């Protein structure tokens, strides 16, 4: 079975893989947000950071598949309707639910104008992360919802892929350009090592994530040549262990991680996640839940109780986000763009894949 075969149709388990990755992010945050210590590290990279890298690798594959299938306008509309409704919900939840509850719990004043400003300032992209006196008493007082920072790099990756695949030259030589982009992106942090001391941190963070996204894009370009085999999955896992021990995860982990998460999506059974995508809601709504629980004193019950209550609340909230906001937005997207049509930029001599032959990532990106 090739990667392209395994990710065709709706029987793949990428939703399940992303749900597990989101769960890993939430689990990693329970320690720092609950005041129990730093995020546990594996090979010099935090557990949550590994999971986010996996998200970006999957997105690289699915976004390229979506862009190949959709014209530019429909691609942009699709991306916006997938990201923004859930994102806006997270802003409203912080301003209208979590911050007021935290203020009551801590006996501080709730500033409604500051909450409204938080929503309005962040409408397009997350730029403000903190407001209110209650948050100053949290274990991480710098942000109500720190994971939102990854949305800006993700949208930049969408833009890079969308613009690149507008070019006929790139479309006809996707493997070559994907390899070149991956090499350039993974080498850039090394070249910018000195610049890191000159406040180049945000740029380096973006390049690190773009490297994993590009690895997923390369997997998409080679989808009909990459074979899914258990020994290859084991070798990928071993390679991740080696580069982790060498603390070279940003430069060398992209390809084995992309292969591993995509291969698991091919061979695993999707189960209930076939029609249910809780990963996005779980990812963007868990941090404020954890912060509020900390301010309510739940962390004093111990890490196990704090962790259990976090998931007991976050999973139903993610389900509500999917059912009431994200899924209806997907339906709106389909109505706005009408029946799926093939992109007129499909290279000459290449048959455009049928709608059912595309991985469902066009409607399931994180």
Please trace the helix and strand order, writing H or E for each element. Answer: HHEEHHHHHHHHHHHH
| Major beta sheet, strand line-up | 1-2
User: What's the pLDDT, averaged over the residues?
Assistant: 85
Number of distinct beta strands: 2
Shape: globular
Question: Whole-number radius of gyration?
Answer: 21 Å
What profile does the largest beta sheet have?
Answer: 2 strands, antiparallel
* Secondary-structure content class: mainly alpha
Beta-strand level of the residues, as a percent range? under 5%
Distance between the termini: 25 Å
**Low-pLDDT stretches:** 340-366
Helix content: 55-70%
Q: Total helix count? A: 14
Quick summary:
The protein has a two-stranded antiparallel sheet.
Describe this structure in words.
This protein has helices spanning 3-6, 14-33, 47-69, 72-106, 112-121, 151-164, 168-172, 174-191, 201-221, 230-245, 249-252, 254-267, 279-295, 303-337, and strands at 41-42, 45-46. It has 366 residues and is mainly α. It has a two-stranded antiparallel ribbon. Helix 2 (14-33) runs antiparallel to helix 3 (47-69), helix 2 (14-33) packs across helix 14 and helix 10 (230-245) runs antiparallel to helix 12 (254-267). The chain is globular, with a radius of gyration of 21 Å. The two termini are 25 Å apart.
